[in-house]
């Protein structure tokens, strides 16, 4: 028994708009993890998702706007749903936080590296703003998880955590793209750095104010 084009069209039209949008976004995430931004077209995203090109434009606008949505998906990790305050020694809390982060990132490793590195659309202020917002969100959630009680109302403290975010992205790039570090190496690096920040750097900055 064959399936007519009308049946196929009816099948994808029956999907709810949010579901269809999510499917398109997932296809874009996958393609941008496989090839650079310049080599991925909206037509290819549409073909991968099994929809008309116009539907991709309807949901996301331009290729750049779709790319920004992929960036948001990659850097706005599901902190609120997946991580919360923990108990026990600082080392255990830090290890748990870093393990959660690496588990989450590894699900979309190549795309995470691509959109947070230099292979996207260059020095794009909107991309930088999205990443900065994600770093601030991550800082608050991670510090809450490891039990650091101070409020990050000081720009210097937030800058320290953004710098840590840069270290994390660079370490992940070495692990996933270049293979120069193992996951265990990255875990050791990020755990020790976060422990030092929580135990020594941020309290020292607070005391110096």
Automatic annotation (TrEMBL):
Stretches assigned to the HTH tetR-type domain: 18-78
DNA-binding segment(s): 41-60
GO MF entry, a single one: transcription cis-regulatory region binding
Keywords: DNA-binding
The protein, known as: TetR/AcrR family transcriptional regulator
Organism name: Frankia nepalensis
């Amino acid at each position: 028994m064959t399936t007519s084009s009308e049946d196929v069209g009816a099948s994808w039209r029956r999907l709810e708009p949010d579901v269809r949008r999510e499917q398109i976004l997932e296809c874009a995430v996958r393609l941008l993890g496989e090839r650079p931004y310049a080599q991925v077209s909206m037509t290819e995203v549409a073909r991968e998702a099994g929809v008309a090109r116009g539907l991709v434009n309807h949901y996301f606008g331009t290729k750049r706007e779709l790319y920004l949505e992929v960036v948001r998906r990659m850097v706005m990790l599901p902190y609120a749903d997946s991580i919360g305050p923990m108990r026990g020694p600082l080392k255990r809390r830090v290890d748990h936080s870093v393990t959660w982060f690496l588990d989450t990132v590894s699900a979309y490793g190549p795309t995470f590296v691509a959109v947070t590195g230099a292979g996207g659309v260059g020095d794009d202020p909107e991309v930088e703003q999205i990443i900065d917002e994600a770093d601030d969100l991550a800082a608050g959630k991670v510090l809450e998880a490891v039990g650091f009680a101070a409020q990050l109302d000081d720009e210097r403290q937030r800058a320290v955590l953004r710098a840590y975010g840069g270290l994390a992205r660079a370490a992940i790039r070495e692990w996933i793209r270049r293979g120069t570090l193992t996951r265990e190496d990255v875990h050791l690096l990020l755990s020790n750095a976060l422990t030092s920040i929580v135990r020594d750097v941020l309290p020292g900055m607070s005391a110096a104010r």
